[in-house]
Fold this sequence. Notes:
The chain is of the alpha+beta class.
Amino acid sequence: xxxxxxxxxxxxxxxxxxxxxxxxxxxxxxxxxxxxxxxxxxxxxxxxxxxxxxxxxxxxxxxxxxxxxxxxxxxxxxxxxxxxxxxxxxxxxxxxxxxxxxxxxxxxxxxxxxxxxxxxxxxxxxxxxxxxxxxxxxxxxxxxxxxxxxxxxxxxxxxxxxxxx
Length: 165
């Protein structure tokens, strides 16, 4: 069974930008790093570019490799491929958990999404997001409002039935 990023968790960010990654997320990062071994720290990728400029997105090494393979299937010099490579490869950074399960968010990353002394980690299945808490709540409120205004045939949960094997 492959673990997925699930749940949300609020964490303090210290003056140096250090923040603890939720313990459950650490297990997913360990499973998703092919070079991880007991006693070492897992590597992963934080993407800070793209259309979701209000949060950072974290991917296991295995997950980001899947994204890279999909991008590589696009025509080599196409605008779409160049745009995706810029968002995913250029505007991303490798990270590694420290021995206490923390990462350091650089000034640039904190500034990019407006993080101060707290950050919310939100599980998104194959990836996780890091948000400034007020922006995250605004995003949830907007999502909730949009969902309430959907017609019956637009309900995404009903669409899942169509995807069953």
